[in-house]
């Protein structure tokens, strides 16, 4: 057995738990639920991305940024707040914001309280693009997700996923 400092620095109880969590060992179908969640998400997003592209619209990631900015007062967020809202690394968000800014869908404004920081601000053109993208996105959600679950399942799934998100992302 090779030396692994991550494991070696643990108590014997912690090491036992680490050894116990091997592929196929998660309890009560949790691994299967996880895999079903991520593969269903990937499949639905892939279809929606294709439909947006076929309609001559930008990728879904653009919509997510435009939506988050549209939802907030003054239509602006600090870059780190936007990164957290759309689940991107800061460097990934910076590249995406660069593209959106180049297309005049948002603009950057300096943060007067923090000279190093800046805000991403939704432009009128960005708001129009979000409105243009929404019907294709909504139809994709309905077709590739909503059509396959009942209202009760949707409510239950929402509760479960909010609980998971809250646990994974404490305030």
How many whole angstroms does the radius of gyration measure?
21 Å
The total strand number stands at 3
Low-pLDDT sequence parts: none
Structural class: mainly alpha
Order of helices and strands: HHHHEHHEEHH
* Strand numbers in spatial order across the main sheet: 1-3-2
Strand count, sense and barrel status of the largest sheet are: 3 strands, antiparallel
Spatial gap, N to C terminus: 40 Å
* Mean pLDDT over the residues: 87
Helical content band? 55-70%
Our count of helices gives 8
Give the amount of beta strand, in percent: 5-15%
Note the overall shape: globular
Break the fold down into its secondary structure elements and pairings.
Layout lengths: L4 H4 L3 H9 L9 H25 L5 H12 L4 E3 H8 L3 H13 L3 E6 L2 E9 L1 H21 L6 H18 L3
Antiparallel strand pairs: 1-3, 2-3
Summarize the structure.
This protein has 171 residues and is mostly helical. 64% of the residues lie in helices and 11% in strands.
